Amino acid sequence: MTDFARTRSLFHMPDGVFYLDGNSLGPLPKSATRRVQEMMTAQWGEQLIRGWNASGWMMQPRRLGDRIGKLIGAPEGTVVVGDTLSIKVYQALASALELNPSRRVVLSDNGNFPSDLYMAQGLLGSLDKGYELKVVDPEEVEAAIDESVAVLMITEVDYRTGRLHDMKKLTAKAHAAGVLTVWDLAHSAGALVVDLEGAKADFAVGCTYKYLNGGPGAPAFIYVAPEHAGKVRPALSGWLGHESPFAFDLDYRSGAGIDRMRVGTPAVIAMAALDAAMDAWEGVSMADVRKQSIALADLFIHEVEARCPELTLASPRNGAERGSQVSFRHPEGYAIMQALIARGVIGDFRAPDAVRFGFTPLYIGEQEVLGAVGVLEDVMNNRRWDEPQYRKKALVT
Asked: Domains of the chain by range and CATH?
């Protein structure tokens, strides 16, 4: 049984804040401050360049990959950390396309995060071989899988509504049709029970700054199934993905297995923070996290619908059909969220009209949920949002 009182004590939370936005950026793990300071002073400061060997900086991407792998059902040696999620999407899609060379369709849905679609558009345009990006409604994905499709590229949890795709079911149908799969776990890793090996996923990618609490801009990760890892050709043949980086050969030779998916030099300071964040997961059951997040979200939905009738639920009502986030719609969604934030309830807004809230049991419970609903009720029923300062759009929403 996971001790959520213990995990809660591991995070810094400002006084007077109900934080329901861990689905966008996880809060600061208290140990991260110390870990980063130690890395900068004792390692970088004292060891200088010797830290690459003496402190194992070069192996951080693999070591952290294995720690994340335990949370997403990935065997040891199949996940590596580094670069950004967009880069990892590009790598995974490019490799999958090369493994299925006779087909020209990439299938996705309009609940996929736009950046994934942007990367696909850019890649397919560069290849200039008649590729097509086919984007359908989330409910139409299963029916759209056929023998014309090369790769199914899906974000498991819809970033807008929290709608959850059935990874195992869709992957099985894809494979039956000769289709490879790329799964984006940005809203899954650390929120859901994920079993990449059991689902037989081909590729998966994800970020670490949301539910994994790695910090703003924390590095991404990529998973390659063991049966593909030794034969995929990295489209981004970076120095760190070379078989022998310090031989300084002029010709590229892929590293072994997942190492070939490394690209740039590890972001050592950021990885120190992520390493500290991963400590919070020791002794945590993802099944317990999932059960509690559904309970918290269900409570939130029940209370909001009873007390804020102007808001319309945009997320699936059944907890088994959504991720760890809930969205409500309102024409004044942006102003509503700004009014909430001004009163200490932090969620976020997603265009055109969704106010979005995340439920992360590692550091929030029923008290925070009920407190947030109380503030939301006041904002809605007393039209606190109807002020000019709440309509001014910020750069980040």
From this structure: 4-29+285-390 (3.90.1150.10), 56-281 (3.40.640.10)
In the residue annotation, 184 being an active-site residue is answered as yes
Residue 209 designated active-site? yes
Instruction: Enter the tokens of residue 278.
Output: 């991963």
Radius of gyration of the chain (CA): 22
- pTM of the entire predicted model: 0.96
Output DSSP code: residue 40: I
Residue from 210, 262, 322, 384 carrying the catalytic annotation? 210
Active-site option among 184, 202, 275, 348: 184
Sign of the torsion angle spanned by Cα atoms 53, 54, 57, 63: positive
Residue with tokens 């024409």: 331
- CB-based contacts of 383, cutoff 8 Å, min separation 6: none
Residue with tokens 């001004």: 342
Q: What are phi and psi of 222, to 5 degrees?
A: -135, 140
Buried b (16+ CB within 10 A) or exposed e, 363-373: bbeeebbeebb
pLDDT digits (tens, 9 = 90+) for 244-277: 999 999 999 999 999 999 999 999 999 999 999 9
